Amino acid sequence: MELVAGSYEQVLFGFAVHRKPATSGGRETWTPVADFTHHAHTASLSAVAANSRFVVTGSKDETIHIYDMKKKVDHGALVHHSGTITCLKFYGSRHLISGAEDGLICVWDARKWECLKSIKAHKGHVTFLSIHPSGKLALSVGTDKTLRTWNLVEGRSAFIKNIKQNAHIVEWSPSGEKYVVVVLSKVDVYQLDTASVSGTITNGKRISSVTFLSDSVLAVAGDEEVVRFFDCDSLVCLCEFKAHENRVKDMFSFEIPDHHVLVTASNDGFIKMWTLKQDKRDPPSLLCEVNTGARLTCLGVWLDRETDEKSSLPPATEPSPVNKEQPKKESCDVVQKEEAPGPNSKKSSLTDDGKEPTKGNSPVSAKKRKVTNMLKKRKKKM
What we know:
Layout: E1 2-7, E2 12-20, E3 29-38, E4 45-50, E5 54-59, E6 64-68, E7 73-78, E8 85-91, E9 95-100, E10 104-109, E11 115-120, E12 126-131, E13 137-142, E14 146-151, E15 156-162, E16 169-172, E17 178-183, E18 186-191, E19 196-202, E20 207-212, E21 217-222, E22 226-231, E23 237-242, E24 248-256, E25 259-266, E26 270-275, E27 285-291, E28 296-302, H1 364-381
Antiparallel strand pairs: 1-2, 1-28, 2-3, 4-5, 5-6, 6-7, 8-9, 9-10, 10-11, 12-13, 13-14, 14-15, 16-17, 17-18, 18-19, 20-21, 21-22, 22-23, 24-25, 25-26, 26-27
WD repeats: 78-118, 119-160, 257-277
Keywords: Kinase, Repeat, Ribosome biogenesis, Signal transduction inhibitor, Transferase, WD repeat
Region (Disordered): 309-382
């Protein structure tokens, strides 16, 4: 297990977490030990993600760097984007999806590190994206004040919703039955079956990170020292606790045998690991902490274990491989042309050039049918 965190100082930190079994009358101890620092970027780090083999980092220098965590070597860089990398998400061991301020969403083969497709996803910046647990859908938000649903099975944009404000976070719940959209200090909770807001959570200050602890409990952190747990159904704050001495920049949660762990990173330089109680109304207990001495911006956890059955996105999303002889920068230079949507616009494709889909005047029920039918088909096949 390794904690990885990016910083304003352009450095990526890696800390191996060593666990010692509980002694008689004591408890298990967790100790983070400095493993590496890497200074590959020429600007502050803005995003980090990990799968079973690699850690990738995005930066304001417009590049994505790849680190092989098994061999502990720099594996190279991806240079397709022409703006700050805002979000990086792995799906299993085969795919990485990136978003950036150039408005592009790119899907990468995470073995050959080739760009499989590149799409002009938003008219402004892409600020965040999230992949559905099934791998069949993705959501993205951007500075064009839209929430966009992507059909990863057919490789096209499925729906565009105008949300009136610029959202900066979107996240699916673990079951994929709901998702949250964050605008400033508010969290709108959407139900997948109705494609509508079921409630709104209000935090004290601007929100910097959210993570689902269960399908109904959301951890929320922002421009303050406190982390809060909210019930997504009742919208009630279950508990809050002081996590850091400065604002919390990022969080990550995961489960291993005997522990449900929340990791937090802050501008105060600390990375902290917390063990969650079964009753989320009880504040978590601190497992360990480490001071990097830097202003942290993003956080990930690399778990040294084999990837589960989520090995790849659905096969339909994979086009023919790009020409290996082409330079990496040019392998994805053909992107979907952004055109003004109209009532007769065709649905866009992530693999073919095409127009934007008809904008958010589609009835909500239409989106509901598109999205839920897609997931029902998958369940029938299983």
